[in-house]
Specification:
binds 2-{3-[(4-chloropyridin-2-yl)amino]phenoxy}-N-methylacetamide; 41% helix; seven-stranded mixed sheet; alpha+beta; two-stranded antiparallel sheet; 9 strands; single chain
Length: 341
């Protein structure tokens, strides 16, 4: 083979290699010890001296060009190879995977927070206390001595601890207010939201565990009018404009005078319907001026301080606002119900 032929076939082989691996084999074939090029070099020795120089230069030039061609081809093939690997490894960051599904607060907790917000907006603080209580905090301090007939208003769940019937699950959140009054001086503006317990058989309107929020104000010169205005303000803030409140006389051992408060029926907006028995009003909770006996029990002078208190069910509030017909939905753990709110 002539140097030109060696070059031509070498360049062709280089061009035909399609991977860096193949090119390495071609390199050995084209430039290695057993290559045609090396063969030409070996022939040099048998040449006449005057031809040897030119022939040697020609062979060397072929080696230089083949080496350059190999380097060029290697660069192209390695770039190709890199691009293919990157393409295969690429993370598609544009892929839409959707939001991670998140839960949310139970409707009763949402209602509790909204009610807290309404009262905090009126300058109240939120107070908390234990759910297991003493008879004194739950009953006696609230003007219900042992054997008082009013205790029959609550079906109490007792805890087997200490003297019989001395420890119980609180039947309302009033003991929280008793604790606040025995631990800090007036003026007091608080709401006490939380769980309360009664020995009830579950039905559409009752559960043995329910949620209550009670409010307590103790200050100088507090009147029944302040109470009515506070209840009116909270009703409109929570249920919306157009919903107002009214009071009707009632009885509680811990308030005197006492009242029940009602709100405009949210289903018929006061026109009268089946839900409100055509009255246009729905009963929500109770309220009244703190009985002087309660103040005496906690060591507050009823001549100097006056106050009002009120209480209502958080569950019932949420049921009214969202048209829920059975309190047991709240604890049935049916995700289809819970997800609606
Ligand atoms: C109702 C009625 C009421 C109170 C709760 C109260 C608390 C203290 C002193 C006096 Cl420490 N009163 N709380 C007063 C009147 C009514 O709740 O129907 N709740 C669901």
């Amino acid at each position: 083979m002539t140097p030109e032929e060696v070059e031509k076939s070498g360049l062709l082989a280089i061009e035909l290699a399609v991977t860096p691996d193949e090119l390495r084999t071609v390199e050995t074939d084209v430039l290695g010890k057993r290559s045609a090029l090396s063969g030409l070099n070996q022939q040099l020795g048998r040449m006449p001296a005057e031809e040897r120089k030119d022939a040697g230069r020609a062979i060397n030039a072929v080696r230089v060009r083949l080496t350059a061609a190999l380097a060029d081809r290697r660069e192209v093939l390695e770039a190709d190879d890199r691009r293919r690997r990157l393409e295969a490894d690429r993370l598609d960051l544009t892929e839409v995977v959707g939001a991670v599904p998140r839960g949310h607060l139970h409707l009763v907790d949402q209602a509790r927070r909204q009610l807290e917000d309404v009262f905090v907006g009126m300058g109240y603080s939120v107070a908390e206390g234990p759910e297991i209580e003493t008879d004194w905090h739950n009953f006696e301090a609230l003007n219900m001595p042992p054997a008082h007939p009013a205790r029959g208003m609550w079906d109490t769940l007792y805890v087997k601890l200490g003297e019989p019937e001395s420890t119980l699950l609180r039947t309302h959140t009033s003991p929280v207010q008793i604790r606040v009054m025995t631990s800090q001086p007036p003026p007091i503006y608080i709401v006490a939201p939380g769980r309360a317990y009664r020995r009830d058989t579950p039905d559409a309107r009752h559960l043995p565990v329910f949620h209550q929020i009670e409010g307590l104000v103790v200050d100088r010169g507090i009147t029944f009018g302040d109470m009515a205005g506070t209840i009116e303000a909270f009703t409109t803030a929570y249920f919306g404009p157009g919903i107002t409140s009214r009071l009707r006389p009632s009885y509680f051992p811990f308030t005197e005078p006492s009242a029940e408060f009602e709100v405009t029926c949210i289903f018929c907006e006061g026109k009268g319907c089946r839900v409100c028995s055509q009255s246009g009003w729905i009963e929500l909770g109770g309220c009244g001026m703190v009985d002087p006996n309660v103040f005496e029990a906690v060591g507050i002078d009823p001549e100097e301080w006056q106050g009002f208190a009120f209480g209502f069910g958080i569950d019932r509030c949420a049921m009214l606002r969202h048209d829920i017909d059975d309190i047991r939905h709240f604890i049935s753990n049916d995700i289809r119900f819970l997800e609606q709110f």
